[in-house]
Amino acid sequence: MPEFKNHILVCDVERDDGIHCGNKGGAEVKQKVVQMLSKYGLRSSVYVSSTGCTSQHRKCETDQCSMIVYGPGNKGTWYIANPDDVETIVKEHLVDGNTVEGLVNDGMKINLDA
User: Fold this and answer.
1) Scanning 7, 72, 74, 112, which has its CA 20 to 30 A from the CA of 45?
2) Which helix (H) or strand (E) segment is 31 a member of?
């Protein structure tokens, strides 16, 4: 079994109400994640999966979804992203090791200093 350095979870849950992440572009975001991981040579070190509803869909605009990036030390960052944001997250977060502050879901920040 391969060892992954990171895990990206993308909410792509669809519901009849039309307001969940899957209704707003979750599948497109997940597809773009896979494309960008391939572009940057990260497919073998980053696991990508769907996640159940994270209850963050009301914070997402019509083309956004909730996306969580977990990495070393069990550190996780919650993002709200659309397909156009994915390359920035992959490049800045996974390649360069920096959180993309402008895309962070502020409602899901965890204060590790508390």
Assistant:
1) 112
2) helix 26-39
Radius of gyration of the chain (CA): 13
Q: What is the CB neighbour count within 10 angstroms for residue 24? A: 23
Task: Kindly report the pTM of this predicted structure.
Answer: 0.88
14 band by pLDDT with thresholds 50, 70 and 90: confident
Name residue 12's amino acid. Answer: D
Over residues 47-64, the pLDDT tens digits come to 999 988 888 877 877 788
Domain assignment of residue 87, yes or no: yes
Provide the token pair at 108.
């899901």
What is the sign of the dihedral through the CA atoms of 60, 44, 88 and 77? positive
Domain enclosing residue 57, as ranges:
6-108
Q: What is the CATH number of the domain that holds 98?
A: 3.40.30.10
